[in-house]
Amino acid sequence: MCDRQHAGRHVLCPQCDMLVELPHLKLGHKASCPRCGTTLTTRWDKPRKRPTAYALAALFMLLLANLFPFVNMKVAGLTSEITLLKIPTMLLSDDYASLGTLFVLFVQLIPAFCLASIILLVNRVPLPQAVQKFLARWLFQLKTWGMTEIFMAGVLVSFVKLMAYGDIGVGSSFVPLCLFCLLQLRAFQCVDRRWLWNEIQPMPAPVQPLKVGVSGLRQGLRACSCCTAILPADQLVCPRCGVKGHARRKNSLQWTLALLITSLLCYLPANILPVMVTDLLGDKMPSTIIAGVVLLWSEGSYPVAGVIFIASIMVPSLKMIAIGWLCFSASGRGRRDSEKMHIIYEIVEFVGRWSMVDVFVIAVLSALVRMGGLMNIYPAMGAVMFALVVVITMFSAIIFDPRLLWDREPDLSHEENSQHGK
């Protein structure tokens, strides 16, 4: 059925490209795509107060976490204590500015920028519309790169590794950083992309009748990847947010495969080269990722060894295989199984960033274990190569267009509406 209706009631699923008519949502409910299950929009209770409260509390906790000592270590009467700001400083002094920069960006600056953007946007702070659009664009692009919770997992793994050498203690900023992790995740969760963009500027009216249950590509439509506006497929620039786009990401498979090959080239030296060097009484012992797993296992730390093995060896390997498989399926080859491939894509997008846990472990150990002539730990080139693998595979998953997986699927009935529930 063709019927010209207001664009605000419709959305093109960003994952499978099906046009869905949104139902009236009760507070606390969400609308999901009936074909792939992707959450399309959520109606939050108190959409201004909730994210503002969480974001302000999170920023305050981050401030506290930077003001006081973070963790400390005592070995044979010697004490070493670090703050969060000392970690990138030590990496910089060891000529590993790249690792220090990644730490500052992923653990501090990106989360802080996103939280500040939330506060400014949801409270209608009088800013030029160009500034509002800039903040909204980068908010939703960068929030995936905030990795404070992954850093905290790395800190816990570091504790287990160091318990064999001395006494480990936490400082006054440890609890605030834990609270910051929880509060910032909650703040991000309470901001709905569709609602926020409608607050900045109304969605443009459709230029043609909309057919519910039919993919946008088959109707000559595309969804703006930034603000979710429904646009003609040949309209390259979104009139609402100003972001350029196409009905399908241009050269998506080629770029994804190029990044995948690059990550494979970095993955081999990341596993062969040492990721850190332990200087114990003048005896320097280089350690690779695999050697670290074997050492933890031999010492009886089976859960931690399992976590490092899964996050640093199994996940990157399986992620690269999965990305290659997704590209093969999206190119139209092989058996059509869009639902299974969509699940694989969601898993790849979610777990890939957790491989950074080993990089953060090295950062913490390198900053904390500085005991003069007794014991010191330094980062090594393998850590840089491994961080590159994680970052490049994350980019490859972002550039991959999941809608290509569904282009061979038949459309649903025009009578289908979105499912909703708590």
Task: Give an overview in words.
With 422 residues, this protein is of the alpha+beta class. 51% of the residues lie in helices and 12% in strands. The chain has helices at residues 49-67, 86-93, 97-122, 129-142, 148-162, 174-189, 193-200, 216-219, 252-272, 289-298, 302-330, 338-351, 357-368, 381-399, and strands at residues 10-12, 19-21, 30-32, 39-42, 71-75, 78-82, 167-170, 221-223, 230-232, 276-280, 283-287, 375-379, 419-421. The strands form five sheets. It has a three-stranded antiparallel beta sheet with strand order 4-3-13. α2 crosses α13 and α5 crosses α13. It is globular and about 75 Å long.
Order of helices and strands: EEEEHEEHHHHEHHHEEHEEHHHHEHE
The strand order across the widest sheet is 4-3-13
| Gyration radius, in Å | 24 Å
User: How many E strands?
Assistant: 13
3D shape:
globular
For the termini, the CA-CA separation is 29 Å
Low-confidence residue ranges: 1-6, 413-422
The number of distinct helices, counting runs of at least 4 residues, comes to 14
Strand proportion: 5-15%
Largest sheet: 3 strands, antiparallel
Summarize the structure.
The protein is an alpha+beta fold. It has a domain at 249-408. It is 51% helix and 12% strand.
